[in-house]
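job 3f2a | input accepted
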Amino acid sequence: MDLQLNGKVAIVTGASRGIGRSIAQVLAAEGMRLVLVARSKDQLDEVAASCPVDTLVHAADLRDLDAPAAVIAAAVSHFGQIDLLVNNAGATKRGDFMTMPDADWDDGFALKFFGAMRLCRAAWIHLQQRQGSIVNIVGVGGRTGSAEFTIGGSVNAALLNLTKCLSDRGIRDGIRVNAINPGAILTERLQTRVKSYAVEKKIEETAAPVQMAQALGVARFGEPEEIARMVAFLASPLSGYCHGSIIDVDGGLTRTL
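job 3f2a | predicted structure (257 res):
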């Protein structure tokens, strides 16, 4: 299926590994030119080498106040346009609410929420010129609270609300804004937990993902490419009536409305 993305320009944050890496590779396969953003230039260079399109690597820490605007400026300088912004950067710490310091809360919001917000603000006029779109990669914790995920749940809920707010403005300005809530996806981070689980339970590592998924109430863990393909669809004109949509890609984990 032709998603009509060939030649368009996408910014992908958190692109050095995991879901972000897969998003970059899937969009490149659709012919999109890329701006890859993360803190590690070496890892970004590796991703860029796997993408057969014109790719700009921009190493930056999006927690810095000026970094988002610099990303947008670099993208426009190199390509002259922006058609898609994928806000994927950001991870938050789990732990006991009573013992997690304020610094962990500050850090959780600084990258995933404020970094995304500032990127949206800086990119908005350029996306408006191209009638482009924004896809926020958020997480199921924004819908369903968990005692051990207070920071992540709060950050995700805020980003989901921002998605709705920006989509409201986007109706006027011609920018589609949507969000994806990944469930348990087999990234490097989850694979580390799988290895620890296998050791703890004294089982084969191949059996650990099955047991862990069953404990969550899903048939299996997801693959990064499954999130990436949803991003490509939401970026495409084929999803033109998706606006302000929040799509759970979680194997049925989220059972609330």
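job 3f2a | The mean pLDDT is 97.
job 3f2a | closed
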